[in-house]
Amino acid sequence: MALLTPLFAFLYHLPRVYRWLLKPYYVASVLLSVAFLLVRKTPGLCEHLASQREDGNSCDFDWREVEILMFLSAIVMMKNRRAITVEQHLGNIFLFSKVANVILFFRLDIRLGLLYLTLCIVFLMTCKPPMYMGPEYIKYFSDKTIDEELQRDSRVTWIVEFFANWSPECQSFASVYADLSLKYNCAGLKFGKVDVGRYGEVSKKYKVSTSPLSKQLPSLVLFQDGRELMRRPQIDKKGRAVSWTFTEENIIREFNLNELYQKSKKLSKKKDEPSIPALPEEDMTEAQAEEAEPDTETKKDK
Fold it and tell me: How far is it, in rounded angstroms, from Cα 64 to Cα 49?
């Protein structure tokens, strides 16, 4: 039964996965990832390739190629242990497969290596991963609106993601963050995003480095009345990001979202309760004035 449940779930979502994998980015990535395999195994082409096999069969892998592929498998398995979404799993497979293909093609023929490397560069410059387009309760800020919105109401708590469209980690985290916004968004707790790759002044003001080596993207920051209360990943004294995994469970625990959500719901109820304004003296009815006069006289008599 434990094996049948994930199998049925996979079959149920198969049409959606099928449409997802047919996007140009994933089709091109799959072709680039298996390029060496196709070249080495295609009849009519593999016969003309060099080989170090003792039997001279140029249509099969030699011992060094098998060693490189085994090392690739081990690297992918280690990297995918920390992956939290399907996009991250596929991203790791595509990345290290392309690196292995570059090594294998250069080892086989320098001309094939240069051709494959050129194709990878063109792919990187022209084909971007598809952005998350699912449901979400997230407000997108610009450099002109973020400060005003964070300080608009001191009773509202904001969780803001600082991201960049070119970052694979941010793209993988998009669906997780959107799911959190659907579960925890309310009048007193809101979710926002700002593209620091586009708005450089925002990244400087909130001290979020956009360098790929800094590992600060994405960054989640909790704001109250425009003041930063906490952020993940944390930054050490040398300005480097402390390693942190952006899973839904980690975010709920570190930001204490369950308790924060309950407090924010109570706050939103108080805000929705209508308040009864005090009547000015000029609008008092005659009956109210008559009731007030005896009280005044009694106080004077005393």
Answer: 15
CA pair distance 29, 214, nearest whole angstrom: 26
Distance in angstroms (rounded) separating the CA atoms of residues 222 and 288: 51
Nearest residue to 212 via CA among 192, 241, 183: 241
Question: CB–CB of 165/132 below 8 Å?
Answer: no
On the question of pLDDT at 258 being above 90, the answer is yes
Check if the beta carbon of residue 96 is closer than 8 Å to that of residue 79: yes
Cα distances from 242 to residues 154, 198, 236, in angstroms, run 30, 24, 7
Dihedral, CA atoms, 113, 116, 120, 126, nearest 10 degrees?
A: 140
**pLDDT at residue number 236:** 84
Q: How many residues does the chain have?
A: 302
Q: Is the pLDDT of residue 287 over 50?
A: no
